[in-house]
Amino acid sequence: MKNTIQFQKMKKNSEKITMITAYDYPAAKLAEEAEVDMLLVGDSLGMVVLGYQSTIEVTVEDMIHHGKAVTRGAPNTFTVIDMPFMSYHLSIEKAMENAQQMMQQTNAHALKVEGASTNTLKLIEKLTEAGVPVVGHLGLTPQSVHVLGGYRIQGKDKETAKQLIEDAKKLENSGAFSVVLECVPDRLAKHISQQLSIPTIGIGAGKDCDGQVLVYHDILHYGVDFQPSFVKVYHQVGSDIKSAIQQYHKQVKSGEFPSREHTFVMSEQLAADLNLEE
Ligand SMILES: Nc1nc(=O)c2c([nH]1)NC[C@@H]1CN(c3ccc(C(=O)N[C@@H](CCC(=O)O)C(=O)O)cc3)CN21
Ligand SMILES: CC(C)C(=O)C(=O)O
Ligand SMILES: [Mg+2]
Predict the structure, then answer these.
(1) At which positions is 3-methyl-2-oxobutanoate bound (predicted)?
(2) pTM
(3) Which domains does the chain have, with CATH numbers?
(4) Does ipTM surpass 0.90 in this model?
(5) What number does the ligand 2 atom closest to the CA of 201 have?
(6) Quick check: is 93 catalytic?
(7) pLDDT tens, residue by residue, 102-118
(8) Active-site hit among 182, 256, 268, 277
(9) Ligand 2: distance of its center to the CA of 137 in Å?
């Protein structure tokens, strides 16, 4: 399994870091077999697998439930888990307790938090000091969707771009071992990546980040309602799944399924002993 020091080395050696989200056992297993560098149990799970309207509905319990399944499926892959909406904003004590629960119950290797507020920076310091690796997350931070006014590209003007550069440095200085940059212009992400010694992981942030992350169900077009423009679909599994289910449905209706090969056929002897009709 790779670790935080190796991720740092990968950046130094210009070796790209690959990350994909996973929310359950089979997805984690397949991602591990595909040899991705890092898994993310993203709070996007609320939207992608639980059908919530946004990530705001996601709870610590939801994250733990799915996090456990992921680490069971990928025991040998470095796994990051998102701290959900407001689970790290009530107080530093409550945040640390939630962090402890998420680490101890899921066996994840690192936590991810959104933003760079004073309190979040303090939390990152305390977690790092406690031996918990932390990933930051800047740009489009979905837990603040109602402040941002939608899922929009961030850092499009001078002020917000400068703020993003500053925030990224603050995250690094607070001890974060990596930063996710979501939905920011390519040149801004490139500049931040060059300024930081910790690796940046981009999503909709261009090719010059030190790594890339995408949502599992997005690259597979698996039951997703919308598709951000930065997503590349590598295989359309959604339509494959649908047609398989349609065939099953039709074959049951028509009597084609189950055929003899999918049936426990009774021996002639027992049928005779029981006087069963043909
Ligand atoms: N399936 C899925 N994939 C994701 O990447 C994702 C989620 N869900 N849920 C949580 C957040 C929300 N995310 C989103 C959602 C929408 C856009 C989007 O539609 N963006 C526009 C940009 C619009 C603009 O120009 O400002 C796009 O065209 O990509 C981006 C990120 C990323 N995360
Ligand atoms: C999109 C990634 C970065 C994320 O935070 C999530 O999946 O929740
Ligand atoms: Mg997230």
Answers:
(1) 43-44, 82, 112
(2) 0.97
(3) 4-235 (3.20.20.60), 240-273 (no CATH)
(4) yes
(5) 3
(6) no
(7) 999 999 999 999 999 99
(8) 182
(9) 9
